[in-house]
Request: fold
Amino acid sequence: MSDTTSSSSRIGRVGGLLMLALAIAYGIGGSQIEYAFASDPLGPRVVPVLLAITLAVLCLFYLKSPGTTESFPQGRLLVKIIAVPLLLLASALLLEPAGFAASIFLLTFGVGWIFGAPLRLALIGGVGQAALWWFVFSYLLDVYLPAGRLFG
Amino acid sequence: MNLDYLWNGFTVALTLQNLLIGLAGCFIGTLVGALPAIGPINGIALLIPIAYTMGLPAESTMILLAAVYCGAEYGGRISSILLNVPGDAGAVMTALDGNPMARQGRAGEALMLSGLSSFVGGVFGAVGLALFAPLLAGLAIGFGPAEYFVLMVFAFATLGSMVGSQPVKTLIGCTLGLMLATVGLDATSGAYRFTFNEPELGDGIEFVVLVIGLFSVSEALLILEHQASGVTVIRELGRMTARLDDIRKSIGATLRGSVIGFIVGVLPGTGASVSSAVSYTTEKRISDSEGTFGKGDVRGLTAPEAANNATACGAFVPMLTLGVPGSGTTAVMLGALMLYNIQPGPMLITERPEVVGGLVASLFIGNVLLLLLNLPLVNIFARVLTVPNWLLVPGILVLSVVGVYSTHASIFSILLMLGIGIIGWLLRKAGFDMAPIILGFVLGHVMEVNLRNALAISGGDISILFQSKISIILWILAGAMAVMPLVAGWRRTKVVKTATS
Reply:
């Protein structure tokens, strides 16, 4: 437990350094924006460069005292945390080929299971939500939802 | 005073469609506010793309979103009182006296009292908005690009000094938002900035993608991490009507809370979380003669609840008249107006009176609807708190995906939302608030355009930013706000100590 404070400020410091790197990259990129002609005296480069400098300065202040950061998840929790975005990614990529219902079923079943629902309940929840949201959006609210190349 | 826009606004708000939309918004808002996992910002962010793709006209969308906002400030108290977990940021203080009351068997009374004070706060705020808005819009006609730029500097200064306990993090958030706003096509020079040759970024990062990513996706990850091992839900509500004695005792606190809430709401950048804290500590300082605050004092319950509702209405004042959001949530609503290509500012009242009038009128109607919803139906909302996370979070993710996909039928947007969500999660773990990023993003484009226009007018002479009376006053106010963190840092430790002592 005594290690937590030092490791969490280390995380804060890593984050701060990453942001500093971002600020520098953004600033360099900003100073090289290509343009032919600007109708105002500043042009498109000035604000990005100013923002980069501002962020860099703020990051230096931040690095001095990052304050408390939550600890980074470990082990099983980390696997779960990674799994959720992967599920979102998978269902996004499946959305057009497999259609709304299939992709949402995957998402709600998978995430429900990750959140601790027993397998059977997660499956029921997945089917239920796929049906519910398809009904609400496609039917009630008339929002366009892909039917999928497989089924549509 | 010309209140024609308001009377016409009532005709807009009282159409059957808009009444139903308002009612739906009140219901959704109360729900969203009551559920600890989501707050008004998430709810509004998720509804914006849906309302837009449904083809709702601008004034109906604003009525819906405003109803959600006000509803959430009613709903947040439910889980604060029953679960000791605030339903949303504005309800944090409500738990301090609300939950002890519930544990003493007075949950039903607490719910009714706070419902009543929310109503008073909301109506007070709506009246203030109705009177103030045309006044401020009249003053704001004198705003040129230079004045707008300085006003936004002031908004950032206010935000940096008041929100969050660490001003550096708030300012970093604002800067990140400003940087995100530069992505895309630069209108005055035709240059593509930071688009990495990705055509979908040509128009810049979509607002909806940013908001949903930062709030909903990151929230899902945080909930997963923090799955509470068990929160005790108070099921015994006791009598559902408040005692007349308690009502009488709360009148002063409610009125004071309303005034504080409205003022804080009008200040750009500060929202219900700040106003409820300020009103609670002020009320405690004024009325806590016997040390009853924190143990179930009705004044400690009603003051912040009146404040957070008054703030919701007050936050519309700068948003509608100057185009500067009065709170994080109204910053998101500004994004909604942008979707409809409506430019908020002093001309909005004259150019689109049905939007402004309809919205303000709907706030009056909405508060009445909310009172009717909340007093007898609070049992239903309380039951909703028992929805398990494994159903709730997937549901939120589905809404996120649909919301983001529906604006442009684009998979890239979903992927971008995902990436932003992960970064948002990491930032939140590091203690960064998401609202400044949204504020920076929403204001960034406008700030830069105004700065460059001002300099174009002056031919590159920077002194144009310091010439008019308005600009000078705003610079001084901005400077005062910037200095406040030093004062506020000292005061905040006192606030925390007083609130919890």
Notes: Residues 2-31 of chain A form the longest helix (30 residues).
